[in-house]
Fold:
Amino acid sequence: MSIYDYQVKDAEGKVVSLADYKEKLLLVVNTATGCGFTPQYEGLQKLYDKYQQKGLEILDFPCNQFGHQAPGTEKEIVGFCQLNYGVTFKQFAKVEVNGKNEDPLFTFLKKEQGGILGAKIKWNFTKFLINQRGEVVKRYAPAEKPENIEKDIIELLKEKR
Structure:
């Protein structure tokens, strides 16, 4: 399996194939609107503004598993992110990233960057960087600020697809 074999629901409930993102550099993030890391939305949007035309896509998956810090509906979450952080990157339906109800996409991401059993996601704003060939190349801890990821994005954007 590759990341392109997965389908997810967007914030409007529409099924999206990740195959739509072939040859794009992806940053997949589990987010929350009521978290101490929520201001990272600003840094994520800055990265998106700067590199989207060069092939970066940010995929935002709200997750309410950690301290119930992503309350509300998908529509409310999208509204909050647009109003407070000017978010224009793709936002998806809420997911679980650990446990028996975890989204298969996150099972895959953890396996690719967490070993055979897939290291559990510890908190909101864990980030996965996927290169243009669909390979999960790096995992970043929640405290890792988006601006610190920029150097890796620049390097991967230089690579031939």
Q: What stands out?
A: The longest helix spans residues 146-158.
